[in-house]
From TrEMBL:
Origin organism lineage: Bacteria, Bacillati, Bacillota, Bacilli, Bacillales
Family, as annotated: Belongs to the ABC transporter superfamily.
Keywords per UniProt: Amino-acid transport, ATP-binding, Cell membrane, Membrane, Nucleotide-binding, Transport
CC per GO annotation: plasma membrane
Protein name listed in UniProt: Amino acid transporter
Location within or outside the cell: Cell membrane
Length: 271
């Protein structure tokens, strides 16, 4: 084995976490001829906050879309809390999972996108109670109590009766975060949630995410171009480059003393 291969193997070993909440094992994804993720290994511990950074097109969104079951890996396996997402093991063989199984595992995952897509004709409260009532089947009183609690948490306790059009973009995005939290997911995915906001509204949304992160319990995977935010919030930062994890580690290492020229040049854009 060459020194480089040994180093790569060592890095892989370091990444293995016991009882991870999320585990990508040897995951590749191609669209037609184009490989966008190449043998991804990634373990995430319960409660961990992970930031994915990297140039546009490096594969970040594909990583989380697969976890949300919006894309299927071309090869490899993904586990959430010990359960395989896309496969089931039957008599020692991996077979494709059925829709029921996918739905069950997907129930552990919440996602907030760039576009918040609230229902315009429903109040803020109703926006937050529809899914818990219809998808989780919890009763209306409990859904309302949970929704109010989460809206308080994102600083919008006084807006329950407002309609989305009466709120600013930052407030709407905070509702989208509350709506996701109401489902009590084990893992929260945030995909560039501030990218579509006016600059003056970015701070309030990042603050809300930091508050939620401080509660500790929820595992978070954040795709962000807000490097200072990643540094504040993340336990580990992963730099994606051309469908591979090119560098990863604690934010104070990866973001302050990047090893590779690619990462140095990527980060220099933000200064
Ligand atoms: P990032 O989030 O880092 O910008 P993405 O995961 O969105 O990167 O995309 C990685 C690559 O995969 C890009 O080259 C993109 O064009 C390609 N890609 C993503 N989704 C599809 C798709 N549904 N069909 C074809 N190509 C796709």
């Amino acid at each position: 084995m060459s020194e480089q291969t040994i180093n790569q193997e060592k890095k892989k070993q370091e990444q293995v976490i016991e009882n991870p909440i999320v585990r990508y094992k040897n995951v590749s994804k191609s669209f037609g001829e184009t490989t966008v993720l190449n043998n991804l290994d990634l373990d995430i511990a319960k409660g961990e906050k992970i930031a994915l950074i990297g140039p546009s097109g490096s594969g970040k969104t594909t990583i989380i879309r697969m976890l949300m079951t919006l894309e299927e890996p071309s090869s490899g396996t993904i586990e959430v809390d010990g359960e395989m997402l896309w496969h089931k093991e039957v008599n020692g063989e991996l077979v494709p999972a059925d829709e029921k199984h996918l739905r069950k595992v997907r129930g552990n995952i919440g996602m907030v996108f760039q576009q918040y897509n609230l229902f315009p004709h429903m109040t803020i409260l109703k926006n937050c109670t529809v899914a818990p009532i219809n998808v989780l089947g919890i009763n209306k009183d409990e859904a309302v109590a949970r929704a109010k609690e989460m809206l308080e948490k994102v600083g919008l306790g006084d807006k329950v009766d407002a309609y989305p059009s009466q709120l600013s973009g930052g407030q709407q995005q905070r509702v989208a975060i509350a709506r996701s939290l109401v489902m009590k997911p084990k893992v929260m995915l945030f995909d560039e949630v501030t990218a579509a906001l006016d600059p003056e509204l970015v701070g309030e949304v990042l603050e809300v995410i930091k508050d939620i992160a401080a509660d500790g319990e929820t595992t978070m995977i954040l795709i962000t171009h807000e490097i200072d935010f990643a540094r504040d919030i993340a336990d580990r930062v992963f730099f994606l480059d051309s469908g591979k994890i090119a560098e990863y580690g604690k934010p104070e290492d990866v973001l302050v003393n990047p090893e590779s020229e690619r990462l140095q040049s990527f980060l220099s854009r933000f200064h």
